[in-house]
Amino acid sequence: xxxxxxxxxxxxxxxxxxxxxxxxxxxxxxxxxxxxxxxxxxxxxxxxxxxxxxxxxxxxxxxxxxxxxxxxxxxxxxxxxxxxxxxxxxxxxxxxxxxxxxxxxxxxxxxxxxxxxxxxxxxxxxxxxxxxxxxxxxxxxxxxxxxxxxxxxxxxxxxxxxxxxxxxxxxxxxxxxxxxxxxxxxxxxxxxxxxxxxxxxxxxxxxxxxxxxxxxxxxxxxxxxxxxxxxxxxxxxxxxxxxxxxxxxxxxxxxxxxxxxxxxxxxxxxxxxxxxxxxxxxxxxxxxxxxxxxxxxxxxxxxxxxxxxxxxxxxxxxxxxxxxxxxxxxxxxxxxxxxxxxxxxxxxxxxxxxxxxxxxxxxxxxxxxxxxxxxxxxxxxxxxxxxxxxxxxxxxxxxxxxxxxxxxxxxxx
Length: 413
Ligand code: SF4
What we know:
This is Adenine DNA glycosylase. The chain is of the alpha+beta class. About 45% of the residues lie in helices and about 10% in strands. It has two domains: about 5-275, Hypothetical protein, domain 2 (Endonuclease III, domain 1, Orthogonal Bundle); about 285-405, Nucleoside Triphosphate Pyrophosphohydrolase, CATH 3.90.79. Strands 1, 2, 3, 4, 5, 6 and 7 form a seven-stranded mixed beta sheet that branches. The termini are far apart. Residues about 240-250 have low confidence and may be disordered.
C-alpha cells in the first residue's frame, strides 16, 4: 500500500473540518447563484424527476460554461421534462436541440441512458453513486457523485475541475493534478470533507467557490469564506516556509503531493502556484475540404446539400456539407481534384475540379483537434440525383440549415 500522504496535505483535524463545512455552507446560502437546475432540485418532490433534472444539468455542464447551458437546459426540460419523454425522442431531435453546445456524444449518451432506465430499470433512476456509475452509460464518477448527493442526499464527495483547484490550494498540492495518484487523494479528501447532513449543498458550494471566488487566474482570496483553512493563502501571506522545517513540512523532493523540486514555489504567482498540470499535448492539426453545393429550389430560393456523418466518432450523426479529410501537405490543385472526385461519388456524374470555387478557410478548435476547413462552393444547374446507397443527405434552405442538427463549425463554414 502506498505510504499515507504527509499531514499538511490532509484534513485530519475534525474541528477544522467542521469549521470549514460551516463557513462554506453559510457562504453558499448567502451567495449562491440562482440557476434553473438548482431551483428544480430544491423543489421537485419526486426523486426520479429530481435525479433526472440534476443529471441533465450535469451532462450539459461538462466542458461548457454555465451561461451557455442555461437556455439549452430550459429548452430541454420543457421539451422532455421526464426520463420517459426523453426515452421516446429521436436522436435527430436530441441532436437538433444540442446543436451548438458541443461534445455531441453527450446528448446521444444521455438519451441512450434514459432509454435504458425506462426499459431495463422500470423507469427508476439508480439511487447511489456506485449504481449510477455502474448502470448508466455516460455517467462517470463525478456525475454519479453529483446526482447522488444533490438528488438523493448520499454523503459522497465530488471532484471536478473547480474542486481540484480549490483543494489543491487549500492543501498546497503542487504535484501534477491530472495524475491518477493526485486525483485519488483528492477524491479521498472530498469524501472526508463532504457535509453529512447537507451533502448536495456542500458539493455545490465547493464547486461554486471554485467557479466564482477561487477562480483560476485572479482568485478573490480576501472574500473567500475558507481562507483561514487555506495553506496556499497562508503561504502567500507569510512568504516562503522557514529554513528549518516544522513538523507539518514535507521532506523536500520526496513528497508525492508537493511541487517537484525542479519547480518550487514561485512567490510572484501567489496562490495560483496551485494546481499544476503536466504540459498538455498540442491539438492535432487536420485539414478538411468541404463544398457548399447550391441549387435553386422549387420557389427559386437557394438550397444547400447536407449529408449525415457516421453514427460514431467525432460529431456523430450530425449533418454537414459534403466534406473530405485531406492529407496535410497537399498542393491546392490536388486538394481540389480530391474534393471533385469525392463529390462525383455523391452526384453520380463527373465534377470538374476547376468548377469548384475557392471561398476561404475556416478554423475551428475542437478539444483535441485544430481543424481547418477549406471551403469551396459549386452552384448547380438542374437537378441532381444523389446515390441513395451513400449516407443520408437532403437539400435545405438557409433557415432549415440553421434549424438542423449541424455543428458550430459547419455554421461558421
Ligand atoms: Fe482559493 Fe484564495 Fe480561498 Fe485559498 S483563500 S481557497 S486560494 S480563494
